[in-house]
Amino acid sequence: MSSGKQDWQWNEDRWGYDGVHLYTAELLWYTHKHNPHGGGGAASQSLSSFLENGPRCSTPPEVPAELKEAVKHLINEANKSDS
Fold it and tell me: Which of 11, 22, 49, 54 has its CA 20 to 30 A from that of 73?
């Protein structure tokens, strides 16, 4: 995977934050709580689903655009290595 950005976080406060991590084959949308008993959660989304349908949760406006560029770059790099 490229050395580009792979993790985005928002809604940061003293209790935790929301975010998404770009893996080779999928995105992982998550909520992190600093309190180990405070909950949290995560859900995956395929790269193709993201490109077709957009993010699976609410994000700041800049996140989908940045993420879309990172996903396209990742797919292009994978296609180059397959050739």
Answer: 11
